[in-house]
Amino acid sequence: MIPAKFDYVRPSSVEEAVSALQSAGEDAKILAGGQSLLPVLRLRMAAPSTIIDLGGIPELKRIGEDDQYVMVGAMATHHEVMRNDLVTRHVELIAQATETVADPQVRHRGTLGGALAHADPAGDLGAAALALDAEFVILGSGGTRLVTAQDFFQDYFTTAIGEGEILTMIRFPKYTGWKSHYEKFNRVAQAWSMVAVAVALKVDGGTISEARVGLTNMGSTPIRATGVEQALVGNAAGPDVAKAAAEHALEGTSAPSDADAAADYREHLAKVLTGRAVLAAAG
Amino acid sequence: MTTTAEPTTTGEIGKARVRKEDQRLITGRSRYTDSITPPGTVHIAVVRSTIARATITSIDKSEAEKAPGVFGVYTAADLGAEEVGLPCAWPITPDQKAPQRPVLAVGRVNFSGEGVAVVVARSAAAARDAAELVEVDYEPLDPVLDMEAAAQDGAELVHPDLGTNVSATWVFDSGQAGTGGDVAEAIKAAEADSDSVVVRRRFRQQRLIPAFMEPRSCVVDPTGEQLTIWAATQVPHILRTMTTVTLGVPESKLRVIAPDVGGGFGGKIGVLPEEMLCVLLAQKLGKPVKWTETRSECMLTAHHARDQIQDLVMTAKKDGTITGFDVHLYADMGAYLGLVGPGVPILGAFMFNAIYKIPALKFTCSNVFTNKTLTDAYRGAGRPEATFAVERMLDELAVELGRDPMELREQNWISHEEFPFTTVVGLTYDTGNYEQATQRAMELFDYAGLRREQEERRRNNDPVQLGIGISTFTEMCGLAPSRVLGSLDYGAGGWEAANVRMLATGKVEVTTGASAHGQGHETAFSQIVADKLGVPFEDVEILHGDTQVAPKGLDTYGSRSLVVGGIAIVNAADKVIEKAKKIAAHLLEASEDDLEFGGGQFTVKGTDKGKAIQEIAFAAFMAHDYPEGMEPSLDSDAVFDPENFSYPHGTHLCAMEVDTETGRVALRKYVCVDDIGNVINPLIVEGQVHGGLAQGIAQALFEEANYDDQGTLVNATFVDYTVPSAADLPSFTTETVSTPSTTNPLGVKGVGEAGTIASTPAILNGVLDAVRHLGVDDIEMPTTSQRVWRALQVAKGHSVQETPSDTHSPGAGLGSIDPNNPKGEVQ
Known about the structure:
Chain A contains 12 helices and 14 strands. Chain A has helices at 14-24, 37-42, 78-82, 85-90, 92-99, 104-109, 112-118, 125-131, 149-152, 226-232, 239-246, 263-282, and strands at residues 7-9, 29-31, 50-53, 63-65, 69-73, 135-140, 143-148, 153-155, 158-159, 166-173, 179-185, 195-204, 207-216, 223-224. The termini of chain A are far apart. In chain B, a hairpin with a 5-residue loop joins strand 23 and strand 24 (610-612). In chain B, helix 11 packs parallel to helix 20, helix 17 (561-588) crosses helix 18 (613-622) and helix 19 (682-701) packs across helix 20 (754-771). In chain B, 57% of the residues are buried. Chain A: It comes from Pseudonocardia spirodelae.
């Protein structure tokens, strides 16, 4: 790989990272796992003046919990996330979506925070994070602020992270005992999602009491399928209910067209996969 | 693995040895071309056209020349290379139109990615940085992209000076050749006969990218007495000769080395503009020059493959007997002719009749220029296209006649009692047993059971339907008998050379002109030599890939290494034994006729007197006591020119589930039983078959090089060009059966391309078998889930959007990043 020339900084604390980012100006890029940044550098589609590598900040890799939340450091790798007991116990949907990301090599390098901050609507983690009402801890020179998932994803590759700010942590409310599934459809196993559906259900005595549904690659951001959620709640988790709920999957979407899937096919897939994801989650 | 025939020798041959080269290759001790950097090396980067067809109005090098570390920026004119043309070694017709293929564009560019200028710098990074500073102004012209339209009169011309886009039209007509009947008459007769059917189909072979693992690279060192070229090539010997032909450097002043080469699949048989640029620059600057391409350059400019339109007419009696086959092809050459590109379709010409007794066959192929990357050989080269056509047509005929597709095949194939069999195109198949391979494959597959399941799913209107795909392929490989190549106007022979020498200490060195790039030659050849000479496997060293070490050869392609190169080694080893026998007889004071040789020992018959071949080697080295009238040496050369091709065959069966709700095709079971004659190393054979299957299946389901309407390759990265991985493929069931070839002393047939050639039609036949009852009768390759779903919608009478194939694909590529419009924050 021969990228254009850049300066390289490897801070050892988040404070250093923020100050490095601010002094580097608007052309700086942050290197997390590099799984999207490096290809872009290699193709010279980006030529940042400075790269700030967050790989030297141990605290950004921590995964912990309190009473209400599982807290995942932005630099925890996909592999670490999907194998973490707290994650699999309390936010299994995140582990399930993470397992579908690319291939083992990528999952050992790529990070949860990097993927979410990259905000590619074809990425798998946005829909799951959105469905689970994740909260994003963002650090800037003025200190830390907390942003909801609904506010975090703004457009293609655009998030609430401002200039001079760094995403340090993602925290997930605990969904202990919920059932979930991530239904992904792609062209080859390591490819990005053409469409995918993230579903988490709280099932009490055979009836769905709460539902969270997120869609991958059905618009310029991950999409929360609230219509599907509403259609599920209060019903028994069966094929007819799943199918009827899936009819709401396209509300609020604007499916892109590309070589793998024109919009009509994507829309069709979104409905089929939503039904399947609900059934698989209800298991 | 099952081998029903006795191997011709015992011991090493037939043993499933792990490959001896792998220790070096998988522990990072390999040395590829890019690992080689002689002192003082300068690096080049090529400035490439971003436009498919344009006139170059100006090239401004000034900024690049001032960039740090840059030694110079050159155009073809600056190098005095405007007249240089890269070679095409296969003029398929006397009037073939061949444009000059320049080392760098002269005045105009003809495909996106064509080199326009070259930057020489202290480092590869400096060269690449400066390449971005070269300003090229273009006057864009409408690109010629559709091969069929391009072949018509009045079409816009890629090369106006040639007066046409049709490079050549090549015809084989069995009626004219006297090897079979007249196809036009067969069609006329069938049309007039109510007891016959005429099946007309058009198939498209999409454009593929060979996608070898190691990108191409070249280092040229001019500082010695000879000019040394290291290259990531399959063909070091051909590269040497062609460098002479292209640039006039005397062949004796050239040494070509192909060090470890990371795959090729035919993609590295070319002579590259960049290789010639390195030679020209090394001569000009007097310094070693290195070029290593990026993956994107590789996808964009290394030759592509397939890309044919096939118009086919098959006639048959209603009882199933095939009476004629008319084949008309358009083959997209791209912007220029590759080294053997024009001949690739011709390599398929003789395989459209495959294993069937077709009485009349006509083959017509028009090679057409377009403003795309040139096409040339890729695993199978011509034969996958032919096999696809005939195996798909057999299924179409079966549908037309309401017959079981396997039964229809059996009715028409050459039965095992009929070998040797001379086909309608005049080739003589020496051996084969289609019944045997098929019977075994059907057993392993549980054909009857799967047909029952299929029935059930159809009856229940199951959303997941089952398809069963068949391909009973054969191919011609082991390229090739030199006289046959001569009759096809190919610009070289097809022999291979070997040298076997016994060292003073009894070890054996073997040189071969077959230069491996991942196949396992070192292991398989060592097994052969160990058996022939009766020496330990570990004592044999195979040397190759350096014209100073193995000066004579025609290299590796067309499944030829074992069946041609391996036989040359056998013949050289036989000569070693012959010489050793004379010395042994002399030392044992016996008559040569009284000696027998086995297990490395010469023994006087009926006695315990004997000498090991290593002792004879030592005696020859010392030369103190050897027979009058002979040289004190066992070393022997051989050049083997086969008298015939090798005709492996096999029966491939695939079961797949087709999800009618999503269009997803999921392979469930793949069984193949291949007859490749005797097997030297079953583990290597299995590896070849697995890899071959993956590539053939990839054509059927996954891969396609897509150009947009401006002639830009839109999927030039591995995220967009979807090569499948193991995760996308089922666990293959592979076996072999054997009817040993009678045209070579090992009884072997080629296996390198078999899996690729056989598998593509098996998949397509299976996909269509799953959905045909729903009203779908064809789906273009690759049969992606979207295409399957759309075909089902159309069959149901629903209107659907067109499948776009030429847009950049958010979600499939760099996620949603559009390379033409890169925006957004990347973390």
